[in-house]
Amino acid sequence: MMTATASQSIYDFTATSIEGKPISLSTYQNNVLLIVNTASACGFTPQYKGLQALYDKYTSQGFVILGFPCNQFGQQEPGSTAEIQSFCEMRFGVTFPLFQKIDVNGQNAHPLYKYLTKTAPGILGTEAIKWNFTKFLVDRTGKVVSRYSSLTKPEDIEKEIQTLLQA
């Protein structure tokens, strides 16, 4: 597995789509990205609705949300890949790209998340993801510009997304 270095960008990473296909994140170059660790049985799960609304509103302008299911917080994403995909589509109409379940913290954290947390640490410089629905906003050049906690609702990020889309 690749380890995170300062000279890297998010485009250097590959993740496995929910359908099981390897996807290079370079596929999303020149787009504004919101990368989110998700869960189906969390108090923040209704944020899927707000995420989908942002995606619907701005995807034609080059905005993409990348959802990464994670079961590291209270075992709130216990389902199989098929169950996760079905839940997201049926319950919230999710059409933005979803990926296979990953770890976002610890030794087995996905290399992308090691990079994100090192590049955009949280409060008091902590790198660890604290809970589900932590969000990373990435500009069109692949630079991580903001990190938002689970408490930040998708609609609260909209102005910054608009600014990055117009840049």
What does the model show?
The chain is of the alpha+beta class and 167 residues long. It contains 4 helices and 6 strands; from the N terminus they run E-E-E-H-E-H-H-E-E-H. It is globular. The longest helix is centred in the N-terminal third of the chain and has 12 residues, at 47-58. Helices cover 25% and strands 17% of the residues. The protein has one domain: Glutaredoxin. Residues 4-166 form the Thioredoxin domain. The active site is at 42.
Main beta sheet strand tally, sense and closure: 4 strands, mixed
Return the CATH topology: Glutaredoxin
> Tally of extended strands?
6
Strand order of the largest sheet: 4-3-5-6
| Strand portion | 15-25%
The computed structural class is alpha+beta
Protein name: Glutathione peroxidase
Organism: Stenomitos frigidus ULC18
GO molecular function: peroxidase activity
Keywords: Oxidoreductase, Peroxidase
Descriptive terms for the model:
GPX_AS, disordered N terminus, two-stranded antiparallel ribbon, alpha+beta, peroxidase, Glutathione peroxidase, Glutaredoxin, four-stranded mixed beta sheet
